């Protein structure tokens, strides 16, 4: 069963994915660029960055033959996985009939300790939930990537809680729809679950996409 976030408990790896006028405004009740990535046996989250391209976590799309994307208005779109990068845990999806979907801006600049962030995603049976936090730390964690292909290449620690289904969901700046990374895991240890999570930063996403 892969209802995906990446809350990476050893015994259970149940799965944890701006504007149409090309401007970026603050978060409102208007449609969000955040999407739900739906597979045969679970779901993750992602973010539309324009022209039908959706970024999500690599372990969300791993070995998936059939995939669809649900936008924040409730419309479902057929989609295909273009590629995934195991070391970075990043995947790119292409959505059919994307016209009218809101888009986010992918910021290739580095985040800083203390930066305020906002996470959007689809935890468990809840769709398009929002949580807030800050950037807490940089550096590798020593965690095995959820696709079992080695350690995550780059992770940033956030003081925000993650839940199954939020994997691949965007980490925005606090007030708008500028993508600072994608969520890939919560903090789980033998001593319990802690209110921290991990993102692949936008600098790494831009690197694997050839933007830097």
Automatic annotation (TrEMBL):
It comes from the Bacteria. Keywords: Signal. InterPro entries: Peptidase_S1_PA, Peptidase_S1C. The keyword Signal applies. PROSITE patterns: PROKAR_LIPOPROTEIN (PS51257). Pfam families: Trypsin_2 (PF13365). The keyword Ribosomal protein does not apply. Residues 1-19 form the signal peptide. This is Trypsin-like peptidase domain-containing protein.
């Amino acid at each position: 069963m892969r209802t995906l976030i990446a809350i990476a408990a050893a015994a259970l790896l149940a799965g944890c994915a701006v504007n149409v006028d090309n401007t970026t405004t603050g978060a409102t009740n208007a449609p969000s660029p955040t999407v739900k990535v739906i597979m045969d046996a679970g779901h993750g989250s992602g973010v539309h960055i324009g022209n039908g391209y959706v970024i999500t976590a690599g372990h969300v799309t791993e070995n998936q033959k059939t995939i669809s994307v649900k936008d924040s208005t409730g419309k479902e779109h057929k989609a295909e996985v273009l590629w995934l990068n195991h070391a970075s845990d990043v995947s790119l999806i292409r959505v059919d009939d994307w016209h009218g979907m809101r888009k986010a801006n992918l910021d290739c600049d580095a985040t800083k300790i203390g930066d305020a962030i906002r996470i959007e995603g689809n935890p468990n049976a809840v769709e398009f939930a929002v949580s807030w936090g800050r950037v807490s730390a940089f550096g590798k964690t020593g965690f095995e990537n959820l696709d079992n292909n080695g350690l995550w290449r780059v992770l940033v620690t956030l003081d925000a809680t993650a839940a199954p289904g939020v994997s691949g969901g965007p980490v925005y700046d606090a007030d708008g729809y500028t993508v600072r990374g994608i969520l890939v895991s919560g903090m789980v240890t033998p001593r319990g679950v802690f209110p921290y999570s991990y993102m692949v930063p936008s600098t790494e996403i831009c690197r694997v996409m050839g933007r830097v």
